[in-house]
Write a structure and sequence with these properties.
- By secondary structure, the protein is α+β, with helices and mostly antiparallel strands.
- The protein has a single domain, classed as Jelly Rolls.
- Helices cover 17% and strands 30% of the residues.
- The protein is built from 2 helices and 10 strands, in the order E-H-E-H-E-E-E-E-E-E-E-E.
- Strands 1-8-5-10-3-2 form a 6-stranded antiparallel β-sheet.
- It is globular and about 65 Å long.
- It starts with 18 loop residues before the first strand and ends with a strand.
Amino acid sequence: MATDSKSEIKTKSIFATPARFNENKDLATRLLNPCKELLAKCEDHNSYPNGKTSFFEEGKNIFKLEQQEFIDFRDWVGKECLSYLYECGVDINQIKIIASNAWVSEMYEGGSHPHHTHHPYCQVSGNFYVHADEDSSPLTFYKPGVFGDIWQTMPIRQKNILNIDKVNCPARTGLNAIWRSDLIHSVFHNKSKSRIAISYNLVVTNV
């Protein structure tokens, strides 16, 4: 095939999946005891072995609780979501963010959470590490369409942005991740004694 010698030939990614990562260790420190107190009131649940979660507990939506630490968390997450959407090119003056639900989970050694999405109940989701022992398992994100990927059997010479099928978000106290709610993610085979995180969903509507 003939090409113009002056033109640049380059293979590049033409679509992107946005996710935002930042840290707030001070907030994590303030949230640790309130989260432990909330978890202590939660019952064991068959759907969450090797750990505890407030997800199934009525009246324990962190976004609805009036404890100051949880109010501060809700306000901070709202601001982070605005920054995330702004960086994604969204006109934040034309939207409204609704703090839908948030729950705290503690994963013990051997705990797992199979791959899933939070869509269609919301548009933006997130995870905030309140506490993560060394060797806590990462949150793993999978590229869209990964489970039907027609390239997955090809031998890969070098991993790069054009062929990776998953990205790990390390479990680190104070680290926050925000992503599109339809992004597939999971946590597998936790190796630490304690991994405490707040997961949350945000609904975005037009004004």
